[in-house]
């Protein structure tokens, strides 16, 4: 009887070790291995740690999470050395694993530390800042492609472009005349 009990305890011990290993593998922090992003398959490899010899321990290629893929679609590939968290709900690292965005660190600082604004910043420094009653777009170039652009709220006055005809109501220049010069900063087609 004692052999049967000892065998059963060893079996339970092995099962507990397997469960503990799976639980430990369910949530793993890591950093994006530089150059590992596969934009076609939308996968990335994470550096999960180092061996005693100093070699990197890499995840297999895993999909990265996007903020939206339905009504709002966002394409934001992870950057080299970006901190992420690999979630493997079953505890088995593989096709069910997903790399989720993590938090800021020394390699990737936050774009703002103000509680009153939300900021989207791109790798080239372009940024969109949303504050109460104010939205700022800062970029080297801003292109707006739309059938109609309204500046200053609904019902504003029309804006003319170089080449548009304007009506001059009085004087020796009365009539319709083309605008021949414009801003060197703002342009429209």
Automatic annotation (TrEMBL):
InterPro entries, A to Z: Vgr_OB-fold_dom_sf
Domain of life: Bacteria
Name listed for the protein in its UniProt record: Phage baseplate assembly protein V
Gene source species: Hoeflea marina
The organism's taxonomic lineage, starting at the top: Bacteria, Pseudomonadati, Pseudomonadota, Alphaproteobacteria, Hyphomicrobiales
């Amino acid at each position: 009887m004692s052999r049967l009990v000892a065998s059963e305890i060893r079996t339970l011990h092995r099962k507990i070790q397997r469960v503990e290993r799976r639980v430990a593998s369910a949530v793993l922090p890591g950093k994006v291995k530089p150059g590992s992003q596969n934009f076609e398959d939308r996968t990335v490899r994470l550096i999960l740690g180092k061996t005693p010899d100093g070699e990197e321990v890499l995840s297999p290629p895993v999909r990265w999470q996007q903020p939206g893929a339905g009504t709002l679609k966002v394409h934001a590939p992870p950057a080299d050395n970006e901190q992420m968290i690999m979630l493997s709900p079953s505890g088995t690292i593989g096709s069910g694993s997903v790399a989720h965005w993590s938090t800021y660190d020394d390699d990737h600082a936050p774009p703002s530390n103000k509680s009153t604004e939300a900021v989207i910043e791109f790798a080239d420094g372009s940024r969109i800042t949303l504050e109460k009653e104010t939205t700022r777009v800062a970029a080297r170039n801003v292109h707006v492609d739309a059938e109609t652009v309204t500046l200053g709220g609904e019902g504003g006055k029309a804006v003319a472009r170089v080449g548009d005809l304007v009506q001059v109501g009085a004087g020796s220049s009365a009539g319709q005349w083309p605008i021949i010069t414009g801003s060197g900063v703002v342009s429209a087609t």
